[in-house]
Amino acid sequence: MQETLWKPFRRGDLWAVFALAVILRMALFAASNNEVGTHKVLDGCFDCTLYLNEGRAIATGAPLAFENALLYFGPGYPSFLALNYLLFGGRVVLFILVNILISSLSSLFVYRLTRLLLGSYPAAIGAALMTALSYTSIALSCFILSDTLYFLIFLISLILYVEALQDRSWKKTVGAGIVTGMAILIRPIGEFWPFIMIIIAAAYYRRYLRKLAHRQSFRAYAARVAIAVVIPLVIATAWMARNYRVHGAFTMSIAGGNGPGNLAAMTLERRTGTAAHDIMKGWYDQFLVDSGKTQGSLGDAYAAYATNGWRIIDSLKWESTKTYLIVMWDNLNAINVLHRYLIPEYNNVTIPLEEAIMNSWIKYIYLAASMLGFTALLCQRQFFAAVVLGNIFLYYALMLGFYRWQYSRHFLPGQIAGSILIAFFLLTVIQMMCALVRWLTVRVR
């Protein structure tokens, strides 16, 4: 299908997608606020309450709470909430409205990334529409959680990085590094992404520059890539060093650093039947006894979980790997259930429907469609786009194996790739159908 066929749809189409995103998110927020009330929803969300308390602590400068706020989740999102407190006081409704705006804007940036990678208007508008319609994104916009802001900041870092590779711009290179560092400070889940940036740069060089580049131009290219990668690594390492100096925990955050401990505890749960939470509590209590302390800190909790976690993983390598793969697979194919907290009035309808979906092949549709889109990219020799999107999808899929019961929440950044891959697959199907119709028309004549 020729690109020109889509030109009549380009007037205001992207703004229509943005408007749709806003309307859907506002509709869910209004329904939830009317049924449950914003504060009741947030009170029932443990992480939401923590984030709000941390943002308030940073805004007011309370010393002990301030330190715990920075260590528990990292400084990025609590600092963003502190800014909200300074701007709006304690009006949490306004916080959520800002979150809805951020979530809605993300669809525009998905459009931009798709255009950069594929140069295709229909694929780009399709990916933007899928982002606007993502129920995971819609539901998360009504909570005070870091996922929505991380999605947007990580997306902007991707756009800057791809543009820096294409334009050979030092400004965009430095910008990509800084924004990637910002994303890591918001959610430590991104702390290993700089290493993926090297793979993306190598793929771009091999695809577009290798035959034309001389040694000197390769050195300039490598220097730009190094700058983009080193900046976020320096930002992350500096923050980890700061946490080590203040709390004795060399980690981006306690929430992110507990992954090995969670995995080890889940592995022992499968072996012994003892709940993972109780196992981790036992580690912490024993750590306090061994240290001669009657009361511990967040840093002590991290030390207890990390030490025991790595010990168990090392001694039960195969079982830990099996647990990790099971949890990753379950989370990757799980559906969103955040509406249970937002509109519980409909739980008697939605919960049986969720269970029916999770017990059928329907739960694999998203993964299957994404993989078909990836295959279509390879078949059409869109190798650079395949590397970028494949690594985004795989990276966030691999991060799902450390935490249970996250459903589709932790994979939200992976939906950047999923939306583009599925839109490209659907476009390919449409193109094939149009080609078939044209062929049949010619044969009939």
Structure in words:
By secondary structure, the chain is mainly α. It has a domain at 150-186 and 192-239. Helix content is 78%, strand content 0%. It has helices at residues 13-35, 38-43, 46-60, 63-73, 76-88, 92-118, 121-133, 135-140, 147-167, 170-186, 193-209, 215-247, 254-257, 259-272, 276-291, 298-315, 317-332, 339-342, 347-358, 365-379, 383-398, 414-444. Helix 3 crosses helix 4 (63-73), helix 7 (121-133) packs across helix 22 and helix 16 (298-315) packs across helix 17 (317-332). The model has no long low-confidence stretch (mean pLDDT 89).
Describe the protein's topology.
Elements: H1 13-35, H2 38-43, H3 46-60, H4 63-73, H5 76-88, H6 92-118, H7 121-133, H8 135-140, H9 147-167, H10 170-186, H11 193-209, H12 215-247, H13 254-257, H14 259-272, H15 276-291, H16 298-315, H17 317-332, H18 339-342, H19 347-358, H20 365-379, H21 383-398, H22 414-444
Helix pairs in contact: 1-6, 1-7, 3-4, 3-5, 6-7, 6-9, 7-22, 9-10, 10-12, 11-12, 11-21, 14-15, 14-16, 14-17, 15-16, 16-17, 20-22, 21-22
